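General statements about sequence and structure are easier to judge against a single worked case. For one protein, we set the task of working out the structure tokens from the amino acid sequence alone. The sequence in question and its structure tokens are set out directly beneath this paragraph.
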Amino acid sequence: DRLAPEGERVVAVISGRDDPRPAALLRCAEVYLQLGRHDETRVLLSALAPRLTKPEQEKSVLWNLAMSYALQGKLEPAIAAQEKFVAKHKDDPLNAPLALALGNLLTSRGDTARAQKYLDEAQRLAPQGAVAEAAVLERARVLAASAKWDEALRAFDDFLKTNPKPDAAAAAELGRARMLRSKGDLPGALTAFAALRDKYVGKPAAEEGAFWVGYVKFEQKDLAGAATELRAFAQKFPRSPFAPAALLQVAKAQRAQGQKELALSTLAELVRSFPQAKETTLAYFERADLYQADNKPMELAATLREFIEKFPEDEKVFTAVDALATSAAKAGRADEAAAAYEDFVAKHPKSPGAPGALRKLAELHRANAAALGRYAGLDDAKKSQWAAALDKSAATVLRLANEYGRDPAVAGAADSFAESQLMRAEAGLIPGAQVPAAIAALAGQAKDEAAAKRLRFRAAAREFVAGGDPAKALAAMKASYDESLAYSAAAVDAYVQALLRAGDAPAAERAALKLAKDFAPPAGIAPNAAPREIQEAQAVALYGLAKAAEARQDAAGAGRLFDQLKREYPWSPKIAEANLGIALNLRAQNKPDEALQLLANVARATTAPAEVRARGMIATAQIFEAQGNLKGAIDTYLKVATFYPATAQAADGLLTGGKLLEKQAAALTEPAEKARQLGIAKKAYEDLLAKHPSHPGAEEARQRLVGLGK
């Protein structure tokens, strides 16, 4: 405990005089308590206590000491001091506010069981008055926190039976109405709020009751009734703290009824009448959403720019900037979109949205390159533009890693960089096998160890997916896996599959559960209504858990998880992966026709990873080959390299397709056709050696070329 200079002077007075006028000094301590200067209160009381002789003064010292600890949030000393007070003054009404303060403190700590004991004691000692009212409200809140709605309602009813004063009765009735709404009893809540509105005319409770009548009607989908009630409320109580919320709900009700122009007018009224209200910031986004729904990009942009100008420090500025940039990018104004993100980071480098802005910028540059088309079909100028866009993307990822290394956005940016390197591989600028090395090289440039770990983890994940040494890839992933960091869904997906391949189902399950936790949906939001990135992570986690259940021979559990995946995320690329697994099992069971049907679904899954679709094509070709359909098998094997050139399966297709061409040519008697087919085989082997020189089949391809005379 500490003492301010004036407190030290008071202690000096106490120490130097026989008659320090205890009553006046005790009052000084009480003033310190009222000012919230609790250390001074206790120092003064401690110095004063030995000199007090009157019982009432000693009682006051005990009470003020206990209350100072409670109000300062020092729980254990507060309880000890209160117990000393109770030991001497058990049923004294002064214990009621002490018990109330301790109940409030315990509630704030989440200890609702002990809190309820103190609140009950406060209400027993003071059945009426301000303390009783506060105790009832806090006790009901404690019960509601445990979803004990009926007990909470009984607490209000019991208090109201004591015939409290009008203001206390109004507060209790308002709390009861709110509890009914929280319980989900909207008809009961509507009746209770309406009764408040009509019973306490001219009182704050009536004003709040009137607002909630309209709000509850909106929740009941009585849109016309809600709009009427809330509009009347805003007109009757224009200075009410609920007036901005009322206008916002009026606009929402109007929009839900298709009255878009009326909704826009109401939102404009809200912005004009309450320029600093929190609902005003929401009104801008409601207006923007209306304009977006009506495909009015100019109005949308103007609304968002106005919001950014008027609320430059608002936490939702990044949301507005992101919407502006997205709109510009969709309209083909990529430079404008990039400038929006750059400007935001420059002006708000410490904003929580800054790392996300850089991640979006990196992906925007990558998308700009992809939008130009396939590299091989571009002219020289476009090729240069394509390469520059990917360079900008890489530079932005590195900037993000160095400036915001521990932010989860780095994990997503690592995915973007991996995709850009795959684009280079598909363009023939680097071998596909070098993609993991390129990611690892970027990790080496990262100054922050957390960012470097995420990038190294992503590189190892890519190594595994690309068909590299699985044991080596898993070891690298384990070395970079940090429980305190969040990794992207794509990287964790590879990690889970590598663990399962190594036979470590428990570790795979733990990694999948951590992914689900790292990307948990916001409170109150259903998983399939969360932002897309969260949904993707949840889908990957479900798939990983299902595969882990399969590995434990828990077919029923795996089935439930796969069903949940298909039900909640029917669009997920993991559905295609699940279909691929089922198709491979059907093929193993000698059910080729059923397998081909599922493999066709895999081929059509445009959101599935290239490796999954490539594996599906290889499986299709293998079925054709087993059925004796060499023409179909050869065509499918070779097309894998055309559609998915950066995958390991591309090399597999080239090698197997070439071998089947040789086999088919051996049975031909027409020299020209035989030479043509062998020429295609040579080209397949040459492509494999040029684009996949480190593939395990490269040496066989080289030997076959020698055998063919080259």
